[in-house]
Recover the amino acids of this structure.
């Protein structure tokens, strides 16, 4: 599992781990039932604290991305299509919020922003 930690990022290390594993699951790189490295092994390979990896795994479990069983480890959770769509929509909403904020800052009218989104969506740009 290739996880890259950036010391220049404003995001905490556990969030970087969480986001990258979520991305691998959402992208189909990690499928249902795939075992994740143990917290100790992950911490060793990333040169971070076990507590940091534990926080990432706890967040992934809370959000329904992994299942953890004492003595067995952590595995990619079974996902339903609605949950995946919801998560994907949340990501799009995040980017749209940034685009809307930038458009307001630069004085781009809403109509122009909607027109641009339509063009990007249709692949015309």
């Amino acid at each position: 599992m290739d996880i890259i930690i950036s010391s220049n990022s404003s995001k905490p290390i556990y969030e970087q781990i969480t986001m990258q594993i979520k991305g691998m699951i959402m992208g189909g790189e990690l499928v249902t039932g795939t075992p994740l490295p143990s917290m100790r092994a992950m911490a060793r390979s990333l040169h971070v604290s076990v507590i940091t990896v534990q926080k990432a795994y706890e967040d992934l479990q809370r959000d329904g991305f992994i299942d953890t069983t004492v003595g067995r480890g952590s595995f990619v959770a079974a996902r339903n299509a609605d949950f995946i769509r919801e998560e994907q929509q949340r990501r799009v909403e995040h980017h749209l919020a940034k685009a809307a904020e930038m458009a307001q800052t630069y004085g781009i009218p809403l109509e122009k922003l909607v027109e641009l989104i339509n063009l990007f969506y249709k692949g015309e740009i």
Notes: The beta strands are 66-69, 73-76. The chain has a mean pLDDT of 92.
